[in-house]
Specification:
108 residues, 37% helix, alpha+beta, globular, Ribosomal Protein S5, domain 2
Length: 108
């Protein structure tokens, strides 16, 4: 996922989360708002309970890869993807299916 397609600033994360429009799955929670630019942007949040920095960065890389494979730039919203504790219980393919089904459920 290109850097231009990421939500990076804390203010942007908070603005998206405070809209309180979200969809959940066993592995993720996705907060959304209408997109502000030409492309959709996503931010990924992974809490400290998920593991140390190495583990959290691995999870974020996997999530960015999933979003890139699902062509996330074409969706009509910006989002914050929050990784839940049960992420580790599922395989990469299962987590990707959860994410794909969540992206289809979103209604702005």
């Amino acid at each position: 996922m290109k850097v231009a397609l990421r939500v990076k600033k804390n203010e942007e994360f908070q603005e998206i989360i405070q809209r309180k429009k979200f969809v959940t799955s066993p592995s993720f929670a996705l907060y959304v708002r209408a997109k502000t630019g030409k492309y959709s942007r996503f931010g990924i949040s992974c809490g400290k309970k998920m593991g140390n920095a190495v583990v959290r960065n691995k999870i974020k890389r996997q999530c960015r890869s999933m979003l890139q494979e699902l062509d996330s730039a074409s969706y009509p919203f910006d989002g914050v993807l929050m990784v839940r504790g049960s992420y580790h219980k599922f395989s990469y393919q299962d987590n990707k299916k959860h994410l794909e089904s969540m992206l289809k459920k979103v209604k702005i």
